[in-house]
Amino acid sequence: MRSAVIITLLALSIPVATTNAQAPTPVVVQAAPVQTTNAAVAGASSPEQEPASKGALLQSLQQLKAANDEVLKRQAATLQQLETIEKAAAEIKIYSSRS
Fold it and tell me: CA dist 96 to 24, 84, 90, 91, 93, Å?
């Protein structure tokens, strides 16, 4: 009986011992292409174009700020709703444990 157990364990351990761990395949990530910066383009522009581009930049930043403010308002409203739901769930949990 004892020899049968030992033979079974050896028979089961041989496939485990002979298998090799799988090596992960290497991932090759290509470098991002070099982009020209706006500073280089702005340095090449004439002085008459700078106020117009600054005005457009300011306007786009103001639009982004307004959009971010809207997102923050929606997030605050959602957070308030979640807090209300959490309080209601806590009350339900308390009432259900009393019954």
Answer: 51, 18, 10, 8, 5
Residue labelled with tokens 């308002």: 73
pLDDT tens column, 3-17: 878 888 777 777 666
The tokens of 66 are what?
A: 């307004």
Backbone angles phi, psi at 94, to 5 degrees: -65, -45
Unique residue bearing structure tokens 């957070």: 79
| DSSP notation for 61-76 | HHHHHHHHHHHHHHHH
The amino acid present at 24, given as its one-letter code, is P
Which amino acid is present at 86? Answer: E
pTM: 0.42
Alpha-carbon Rg for the chain in angstroms: 33
User: Residue 10 class from Cβ within 10 Å (0-12 exposed, 13-18 middle, 19+ buried)?
Assistant: exposed
